[in-house]
Amino acid sequence: MLLSASQESYETMMSLSLKLKHPQQNFSFIVTDKMTQVHWLRDKNLRDVLIHLHEWHLLVLHWIKANQAGQAASFFPTPYNWRTYGGLNQEFVLKHQETSLEQAKVLLAGSHKDMLELIETFSDEALFTKQYFTWTGTTTLGSYFVSSLPSHYDWAIKKMKYQLKADKSIG
C-alpha cells in the first residue's frame, strides 16, 4: 500500500509538472495575500518544490542508514529540530539556486527510487509498529516514509494545481 501510494502520487505530481505553462526555474509561482504559509513564499518555482522533496528524501535515507549501521543519528542535522526545521528548508532552496529544473527532476527521480527500494527492505511490522526501532521514538518508521513520499507529494500536487488554475486565469 505504501509503495503503490508513493508511486501513484509521484506519477501524478510529475504529470502535473509537465502541464505547467511556465515550469522553467526562473518563473515564480503566483502567490496571493491569502497564502500565508511559509512554503508559498519560499518555493518560487517548480525546481524549488522538487528540490525540497529530494532533500527530504535524503534526510530520511541518511537517518535510516546511519541508525541501521549503529550510528545514533537524529533525523535533522544539528542545529535543527521539529520546531526549527523551517530554516533547514530555506537552506535547501539556497543550496540549489544553481540546480537546473532538469537536474532537479533527475535528483528527485533518483531519491524517490532509493526511498522505494529502502521501504522494500522492511516488513510491514517493522514499518508500522510503534517503537519497533528505538531510534524512531514514539512513532513508526513508516510514518516517516508516508510523510516524505505520498503526503509530501500531495502537498506538491496542491501547489501545482493552484498554479495550473492561475495559468488558466492569466491566459
From TrEMBL:
This is ClbS/DfsB family four-helix bundle protein. Pfam families: DUF1706. InterPro entries: DinB/YfiT-like, DUF1706. It comes from the Bacteria.
